[in-house]
Amino acid sequence: MNLSGIVSVSGKPGLWKALVQNKTGFVLESLDAQKTKLIANLSTAKLAALDEITIFGYDDDIKLTDVFERMKTAASVPDAKADGPKLRTFFREIAPDHDEEKVYASDMKKVLNWYSILKDMPLFNEEAKAPEAADAEKPAAAIKAVEKPKPVAKKAPAAKAQAPKVSAPKNPSKKG
């Protein structure tokens, strides 16, 4: 599955695709039917790339992409609005190593919501790009290192050419 360039924005529902990067952040497009555009400022918004998200595990953290792969092969995926015990049982099936004290029902609901958004998209079934190919894609590569942009040094304004001073003749109509 190719989730490069797909992000979650804190405080915004749903998932977003990074289109381009500008000086202050990213231009994002929602993955829903409205295709809403959003400019996410790096100084105020927190972006999380889906291909880098992990779930707490007892030994090692579990990659979200691995959880999605297991969800594809699961017999039935519960609705995100299901009750907590039903979600916990499902997560024990698809992620048996998850830390039950650190992974809350709200986290499981979020994963199920993301899965329901992504499961019918073509990018969900295509192969992930090789690491060297991912570097060529600017939005996804830039999201991995979410940092504030460095200030760009500006050139000093060119010195204005000053015209030589010319003494103007005194006004002949005034005597003085």
How would you describe this structure to a colleague?
The protein has helices at residues 64-73, 84-94, 105-118, 122-125, 131-136, 138-144; strands spanning 6-9, 16-21, 25-30, 37-41, 47-49, 54-55, 62-63. The chain has one domain: Arc Repressor Mutant, subunit A (Orthogonal Bundle). With 176 residues, it is α+β, with helices and mostly antiparallel strands. The protein contains six helices and seven strands, in the order E-E-E-E-E-E-E-H-H-H-H-H-H. A five-stranded antiparallel β-sheet has the order 4-3-2-1-5. A two-stranded antiparallel sheet has the order 6-7. The longest helix is centred in the middle third of the chain and has 14 residues, at 105-118.
Please give the share of residues in helix: 25-40%
Strand proportion, as a percent range, falls in 15-25%
Number of domains: 1
Write down the Rg. Answer: 27 Å
The CATH topology comes to Arc Repressor Mutant, subunit A
Overall pLDDT confidence: 77
CATH architecture: Orthogonal Bundle
List SSEs in N-to-C order: EEEEEEEHHHHHH
Shape: elongated
Helix tally equals: 6
Largest sheet, described in full?
A: 5 strands, antiparallel
Q: Quote the distance from N terminus to C terminus.
A: 92 Å
